[in-house]
Each structure stands twice: as structure tokens, then as C-alpha cells.
Amino acid sequence: MFLQQLVNGITQGSMFALLAISFAIVYGTLRLVNFATGSLYMVGAFAGWMIVQFVTANLFLAILAGAVAGFIMGFVLERFAFRALRGVARIASLICTIGFAWFINELMTVLFGAERKAMPPFYSDTAFVISGVSVSWLQIILVAVAVVILVLLQLLIFRTRIGLAIRAVSLDFKTAGLMGIPIDRVISFTFALAGAMAGISGVLASAYYNAVFPFMGNIAGLKSFSAAVFGGLTSIPGAILGGYLLGLVENFGVQVISAGYRDIIGFVIMVVFLLVRPQGLLGRKSS
Amino acid sequence: MSLLDVTNLEVHYGKINALKGVSLHVEEGQLVALIGANGAGKTTLLNTISGVVPGSAGEITFQGEEIFNEHPHLITRMGIAHVPEGRKIFSELSVEENLEIGAFIQRDRERITELIERNYELFPRLAERRRQEGGSLSGGEQQMLAIARGLMSDPKLLLLDEPSLGLAPILVERIFELVTEINKRGVSVLLVEQNANVALQTASHGYVLETGTITLDDDAAVLLTNEEVRKAYLGIA
Questions:
Q1: Which of A174, A179, A188 is the best residue to mutate to test the B interface, defined by the most B CB atoms within 10 Å of its own CB?
Q2: In this structure, is residue A228 part of a structural domain?
Q3: CB distance from B111 to chain A under 8 Å?
Q4: What is the tally of structural domains in chain B?
Q5: Which tens digit of pLDDT belongs to each residue from A116-131?
Q6: Is the pTM of this model over 0.90?
Q7: pLDDT band of A287, cuts 50, 70, 90
Q8: Residue A194, in any domain of the structure
Q9: Is the CB of residue B149 less than 8 Å away from at least one CB of chain A?
């Protein structure tokens, strides 16, 4: 059973990690918690579902569609909502993200209905069995996709010009502007990138749970937000670590306590941890 | 036409009139000092030139081109580097990464390496500390890094805001020697300073700003002997 929970934890942790990164990169650049992240996750899942339903039953194409949908949604949200609010009290932007979350969720309910839509099973064959625990190809693919994306993101941020610009803007956007960095464009791109991460995570989750529905992002969003806080909120490695830890803690918690407490276990551990270490695992001490 | 022309510049912060029709010029190759008390509007003037603070009226041209209320990154691209008050280095990044960010507008890798080498030759201390985090440097070294980072965009005009702030006298002297050297190498400088004595000794031309208005505009050497300047800014009766 230990091994089974380990496998489940890593698989779910991959999705949490991608979503936690989405929170972390937006917070890192704008010091804004984007509570619409869960909705971008859901929109990504719907985009993937539509590809599977109406175009072709290809998981990788669905993931790509989720990334594109999240990218565009992230860009649009920043450009038409958050940019106008930049520099105003941060609480206004925060409330705006909550408003958008509900707006997008309700809009999708009107368009597609509130009921769950089935995502067909992908790669459900067993890849291998170790000590009685079977691991499906889907689980391997989900983890591999997440790892590839995480590596690409690190390369983007630490090895490219736009990555340098993102880091500079996140440390001090006023001074970054004086260095000739086009701040508005960098922030737009960061939001879009965060949207793409959320969208990919949504497609992965919909394939794993075989379901898509308008409010699927609510709990996933809150959990991943706490995973990001756990990691320090401004740190990408922290968000990754937080995401995987949450996946593992939840699954082992279910094992030890009861499946009915699944959604509570993670939050309780986060709260206790933050009481001890408020800046999170890898966060900056103060900003 | 000068390199930089500021004409009748007005800046308001809400209802506060921070600059009341300021005119100032920097000629090609010149080192100009702008002195004045705390709160006179010196930093506001630099921030408006570099596009960080919006002006409400007036005109700013650089090499004859209008730059009034242009985006900061476009102004940097035109050849103005602003070294902000309080240095504002990226303290969590290494010295070299700070320089890389300063070179953001440079696309040619070889050119960037060349500019970094040139800076290390000018500031050997930075070369020694190239892998160290910016935040771990001393105040003087941080100021050098801020200036070096500004030079990475290969500017025609350097805007320097209070480079002497919080530094020991010996370091202030060293920083101003370097500013003179940079100016000799062909970069025009507009220097804002509370330390009027050292600023006017370094500069060729000077302006005195008092509560948003230019009250004196003359050769630096003349200002150094001016009775009012000596009383108000040099502490000499």
C-alpha cells in the first residue's frame, strides 16, 4: 500500500506542482495572488476535452490545446483587467481575480452545463507492476509531461533573455524599466505563461480523473495555492516541492486517516507548517 | 540644440506642484551638476526625464527628439541611462547578472562581453566580486555596480542620482573620480547631488534647484564662489 500511495502522490503532485507554479510566477512578478488560476485550469481542461470530443482523441494535442487556451486567457485577463488596476490598492486586484474566477466558472456553466463531462480513458494499460502495485502508462505520461514542462520553464527563466527580464521585473519592476526592459510586455507574457501552466495542469487532471466540469478548478486551485505558499510563494522550486509534497501528504494521509478527510489533511499541514515557518520552504524572508 | 533640453517642465504629485517650469540643458560631453536641498525636486526631475514619473506640462528633447512622457524602456533605448537614487541594484542577483540586465537592450553577445570587460577595467573591485550577490557588496561597491550597470546600455547621457549618498568621504572622492573618468570617455552626465561641494568641483556647469524652481544657472566654478551657494549649500559663511 505504501508504494501505491507513493505512485498516486507523485502523479497528483505533478498536477499540483504545475498549478502551484502558476500562482508563484504571477505572485513573483506582481505580488498578486491570482485566484482565477483555478478557472484557467478548468478552461484548459475544457479546451482539451473539446479537442478530444470534436477533433481527435489525442491526449498530447489536448494538452497543447489546454496550454494555448490558458496562455490566451492569462494574457487577456492581464491586458484587460489587471493592467488597469496595477498601482491601485492591491486588494482591488485581489478581489478582481476572485470576481473573474466566478465569472469564468459561471460562463462555462451557461455554455456547457454544470454536470460532469466524461473524458475518455487514455493509455490506461498497465505499464509495469512492482510488488503488486500497477502503474499505468497514463501515470507515467502525466509525470513525464509535468517534468518536461518544469525543466523547460527553468531553462526559459534562467537561460533566456525573456527569462532575465522576468527575473528583473519580479525583483524590482521600476528599476527593470530603467534597464530598457518593456515591463508591460514582460508582465503580459508572465501572466500568459502562468495561464498555460494552469491550462496544462487542467488537461492532465481531466485525463487522470476522466472528468471535466465548470467548478473543477475551485478545490484544485485552493490546494495548489496552499502548496505554493508552502513553497514560499515567490519561488518556483518551492512551488514544485510544495506541489509534490501536497500530493504525497494527501495520499498518505488518506491511507492513515480516512479518505473522507482528503481535502482537509493538506490544509491542516500547511497551516501548521506556516505557523512554524511563515516565509515558506524556500521563500524570501522579507520583500 | 543641446544633447538634452528640458523646457518649462511642470510636474504635479496630486495637488503638489513639485516642478514649476524647470528649464535645463546638457551639452554633448558636458558634466552638469544639479544641486539643491532635500525635497527641492531633483530626483523628480531625473525621474521625469527617464519617464518614470509623468510630467504635466513642458517639453523634454534628447538629441532633438521628443521624449516627454515616453516609456522608460524606450528612453533607455535612445541612449539615456538613469542610475536611480538608493542604487537599486538587484541584490539577490550576482554582480555579473546585474550587468547582464543592464545590457538588456544590447542584442549582440560579443558587444555585451566587451562592455562587461570595459566595466571591469573601470571598476576592478567588481571584477573581483563578479560571482557575489549584489546585496553582499559594501555601499561604495554597490554604487559602483549601479553606475556600471547603467553604462552597460552604452548611453550617451548618464543620469546620476545622489551617488555620494551614505558613503564615507574617501569613497565619495573615489566615485567622483570615476564619474570624471566616465565623462572623459565621452559620456555626458547630469549629476544630482546634495553634496554641493564635490558636485560643483567635478562638474563644468551647475544648476541650483529650490522648491521646484531653478534659481541659479552658471559655470560650476562661478557657483562655487557665489555668496548664496556658499551660505546655503557649502556651509561657508
A1: A179
A2: no
A3: no
A4: 1
A5: 999 999 998 888 888 8
A6: no
A7: very low
A8: yes
A9: yes
